Amino acid sequence: MPKSGALSFPKLSLELVEDLSPPGTGFLRLLRRRYRISYPDGSQSAPFIYDAIDRAAIDAVVIAAHFVDAAGARRVFLRSAMRPPLTLRDRAHSPLPREACDGALWELPAGLVEPSERTPEGVVLAAQRELHEELGFQVPLESLRALGPSTFPAPGFVAERHFFFEVAIDPTTRGEPTLDGSALERFGVVVDIALDEALAMCRSGAIEDSKTELTLRRLAERLG
Question: What's the pTM value of the predicted model, to 2 decimals?
């Protein structure tokens, strides 16, 4: 795949030799495939097995909802999120001796792009829907602005792509979040904090969610 810009990506070709994926009907599906790589000099690697995961709704949106308070400070909305994989981290394997992973993260609202939303217009609809579900704001589509290009947050094991948006809102219009029915979203807390404070929390490690930090930094860059 050619890459634009000043960097020149090596001409590697990935060949699928065999699909060994087990059948699965859950939220996530294990992809186990045997590949071979062709190199620029004409040589090839030995076949090797590579595991990845897939899901029906593979991509996601991330939304920074912000406003200026009476004191002139820019504020953003965060939501508490419980992430079970973090509670399963084996601290004995961690390079951080005092690591405390209880599954709790502060994040910007985010959610999956449904199969019916796999168009540029559909992605904006997904951002509009997630903003209502997770924060309780109903905004017109035209108020949502793309916040830079999409990215791959974990390309080593999943092909998920993140799409970033920002929207200026009136905090007095916030209603009750509709949520998506997940047990993990019940009793979630919505807070608004100064953008500068949120960025300081990223620097200190109080905010550990990478998509949230990236979006906050892009927002601060856009707003100057």
Answer: 0.92
